[in-house]
Amino acid sequence: MVNGQDTTELANKYGTPLFIYDVNKIRNNARAFVHTFEKLGVKAQVAYASKAFSSVAMLQVAKQEKLSLDVVSQGELYTALKADFPVEKIHMHGNNKSAQELEMAVSHKIGCIVIDNFYEIKLLDDILANYKTEMDVLIRVTPGIEAHTHDYILTGNEDSKFGFDLANGQAEKALQMISESKWIQLKGLHCHIGSQIFETDGFVMAIKRLFSTLEEWKTRHAFVPKVLNLGGGFGIRYTSEDDPLPLSGYVEALVSEVKVHVNRIGIPYPEIWIEPGRSIVGNTAITLYTVGSKKVIPGVRNYVAVDGGMTDNIRPALYQAKYDAVLANKASQKVAETVSIAGKCCESGDMLIWDLDLPTVEHGDLLAVFSTGAYGYSMSSHYNRFPKAAVVFVENGKDKLVIKRETYQDLLKNDLSYE
Ligand code: LLP
Q1: Residue 269 phi/psi, 5° resolution?
Q2: Which sites are catalytic (predicted)?
């Protein structure tokens, strides 16, 4: 069951593979962030990182929940505009924003651009001069902390394609360049230390580093940030091995650490922005597959193949990500075998789950994989020319198709004949 809906019925109605999102859960996650900031009396923007899952319907839900939006491409911005997302609440990221992307952002008057490199400062300045308009920006900095989910590495010598180094004065040079621009308005700093982070100490370290820079900039440039964007990365539970904090716990940790440093260096409390993607949608969806073939290698392994795989969920192949799953049509049956779930792509690495305990698996069973709401559909591909899956939203016991299943005609729509 998903939100009162029988998954077997949904599979019959929409086919498989099928992403089923519980919209009430999306709203609850969004509200957990927003309400915690409200409770703590901190002015904030919670910007949904739409790379986790972007569609018109999803962005409409984000809009209804009064979220802001993080887009990283013209395609994500285009989707936001189609969803009628309030432009002033859209923030644009990207380590290689094109002139066209920046121009689209400027012409639609989006709320903020997160500046990533020197080339972009010049490009944006020229575009703004052309449009005779101003744009708020944040400088993205790499604070020298890398989160590896459970532990943090302090990297003295930054090695990242994103942002300006704090350590070697690049960020300060960006500040100076921006302050010479008539059109670019610097609101503050941005940093993002990684994704699927469970503990708060990495965020705390990053905030410490940001403030030691801000302390210097206050003295040297009289710069006081109006905004601090602390990025996303809050972890979720995929399997019982994962132990994230409640979403409010991350917000509380950020807010209290910022307070310490604001008092220490004597500046007003800035607006806090965050950019959660995974933690808003990750645990709100399941993927339903139909079981097809089975290969039993006695004493070695039972492979069970489903009608999707790395084309709708690349994460196990790409990151060795782990997932949990059940047989939706045999939910009350006892565990009878240990199987490994294979996708149907022509590639040995196309495995979804290794060593999963299930009731006896048979052709036609429905496998429900949990927590596939983030970076599943959004990273899906056409490998082996599989059409992309359908996406259904369920809310208050009602289901609605929000992304149609692709057809073979869709697959070929850009193919041109060579005869
Ligand atoms: N802000 C920035 C600047 C980011 O780069 C990201 C993610 C986020 C926010 C959102 O992070 P989240 O809250 O979703 O962790 N494809 C990978 C994740 C890549 C994340 C990239 N940046 C995965 O499937 O695990």
Answers
A1: -65, 125
A2: 346 (proton donor)
Average pLDDT over residues 156-178: 88
Residues 165-192, mean pLDDT to the nearest whole number: 96
What is the DSSP secondary-structure string of 204-250?
Answer: HHHHHHHHHHHHHHHHHH----SEEE----B---SSTT--PPPHHHH
Distance 385 CA to ligand 1 centre (A): 27
Nearest-CA neighbor of 284 among 32, 70, 8? 32
Q: Which atom of ligand 1 is nearest to the CA of 93?
A: 3
Pocket test for ligand 1, best of 96, 146, 275, 379 (most atoms within 8 A of CB): 275
Neighbours of 273 (CB within 10 A): 24
Q: How confident is the model at residue 160 (pLDDT cuts 50, 70, 90)?
A: confident
Residue 95 has a pLDDT of 95
β 90-92/145-148 pair status = unpaired
ipTM: 0.99
- Kindly indicate the confidence band of residue 183, based on its pLDDT and cuts at 50, 70 and 90: very high
- Strands 112-115, 90-92: pairing is parallel
Separation of CA 215 from chain center: 31
Q: Which of 112, 191, 345, 346 is catalytic?
A: 346
pTM over 0.90: yes
Which residue, among 237, 224, 239, has the nearest Cα to 189 in the 3D structure?
Answer: 224
Compute the distance between CA of residue 222 and CA of residue 219 in angstroms, rounded to an integer.
Answer: 6
CA geometry: angle 48, 49, 53, nearest 5 deg: 100
The helix (H) or strand (E) run that includes residue 184 is strand 184-190
Regarding the beta carbon of 190 and ligand 1, being less than 6 Å apart is answered no
Say how far apart CA 309 and CA 313 lie, in whole Å.
6
Alpha carbon of 233 to ligand 1 centroid (Å): 6
Q: How would DSSP label each residue in 338-401? A: EEEEE-SSSSTT-EEEEEEEESPP-TT-EEEEES--SSSGGG---GGGPPPPEEEEEETTEEEE
Buried b or exposed e, range 81-114, using 16+ CB within 10 angstroms: bebebeeebbbbbbeebeeebbbbbbeeebbbbb
Q: How far apart are CA 351 and CA 217, in angstroms?
A: 50
Could you tell me how many residues make up the chain? 419
What the chain holds in terms of domains, given with CATH numbers, is 93-276 (3.20.20.10), 284-406 (2.40.37.10)
Is there an atom of ligand 1 within 6 Å of 199 CB? no
